# Entry
Amino acid sequence: MNDRPIGVFDSGLGGLTVLKEIMKILPNENIVYFGDTARVPYGPRSKETVMKYTFQAINFLISKNVKAIVIACNTATARCLKEANEKYDIPILGVIEAGARTAAYSTKNKIVGVIGTEGTIRSKAYNLEIGKIDKDIRIIDKSCPLFVPIVEEGWANTDIASLTAKRYLKELVDENIDSLVLGCTHYPLLKRTIGQIVGEKVKLVNPAKETAKDLKKVLEANSVLRKDNSGVYEYYVSDIPEKFASIAGEFLKKEIKDIKTIEIQKY
Amino acid sequence: MNDRPIGVFDSGLGGLTVLKEIMKILPNENIVYFGDTARVPYGPRSKETVMKYTFQAINFLISKNVKAIVIACNTATARCLKEANEKYDIPILGVIEAGARTAAYSTKNKIVGVIGTEGTIRSKAYNLEIGKIDKDIRIIDKSCPLFVPIVEEGWANTDIASLTAKRYLKELVDENIDSLVLGCTHYPLLKRTIGQIVGEKVKLVNPAKETAKDLKKVLEANSVLRKDNSGVYEYYVSDIPEKFASIAGEFLKKEIKDIKTIEIQKY
# Structure
């Protein structure tokens, strides 16, 4: 059981920032990553479509004999984590709960900002999770559709990124948030630019980091932590996108070899 | 035959700018529009994936008994217009040939710029078509991935649009282009901003307009122009995206009612 891999799934390559945090915290674990690059982005899609795609991804990972799955995609977590846990037997973690919890416990003035794709923001999933912990926390949320292509262009630290961040985040700063959830896997790469706009008094919460910590606890609780050294990583995508190598390198800070393409609609 | 509709297909909603030009030039025609919104964008996808999606879209339009099809998507035109015309009997037009021809005949210094999505630029389809007309024309091409989300945010006339256009278009201006092909259906909405960056001496070529003129000629040549007044329009998508109404309104300058959702992978 302990040698069975962890499955990590995202609609595209953003989930590699989550993979990176898991590798750091659980360096012994074998991991299978699947990026649904043929159907990215999930953000603007309907709940039914996202659920269908997510279940196909989970079916694929289960065919790889995984012992746990992290849905490293805010949209998919927001739309169907609950349904996924009802349908499957292995532990399935999303990226929202841990981020929401960290924000709820770190805010002092009880005003929290949440940014993400349209799908994540529309789902109100962070609001719901934060509300479960403390219903008095006020949440200012905002979708930021330009952030993903800015990161993918490698423009995270340009004037365009700053102006875009200023335009998106002005209302959150005006509302005096003291914690900001980076509710999209691409956003940690914009941490510096976002930090400059919101100021250093605002704590930036990276759900990827918090989720990796949660995963470790789940594996410990189930006594399935791998003992051997240095995990092995496998990468699967549903299509090889043009900038795969450069984007993957930037997200993971590590070269990726032997990426396999699969026909995900068969799962 | 004459009452049979024209089919217009795009990976998303950008093709509505092409639909708009067809409505202007051929106001009597019935039209069926299909936007593959569940699988947009095609730009970063492989040729095989784009071809599979395009053939499914054509099969759907043929099930609606269309007399001609316009592939109002630069990526799909670039990757598989030739294959589509080999496979099907009705006339299928793309958006590239007409735009390339207009640029080739309008340039005086024989230096032409072409901008589009990654897929379109990588395909070199405009270069190929322009080269067929005049092999001495030098082409400076550039992919501009931020332009689509900027248009969809309604930011076409902001400082962010200007800075992004400046960054993308600097090398084209430096190379002294005198014609610029707006090789993506979203880009006509950025015409003013792009015009300010490249200067008024550079002619902006809108392939949508040129394609609508070509379509009229094809229908005339086949004697299948519709005689009755005021065409009827039908809209189909593979998923209803969040901002459908606002984006469609901005692109078409007209309200869209009764959009039907279809399962495109069945075709």
User: Anything to note?
Assistant: Chain A touches chain B at residues 37-39, 44-46, 49, 118-119, 122, 145-146, 149-150, 152-153, 158-160, 163-164, 167, 239-243, 265 (CB under 8 Å). Chain A has two domains: 6-95+209-266, 96-206. The radius of gyration of chain A is 18 Å.
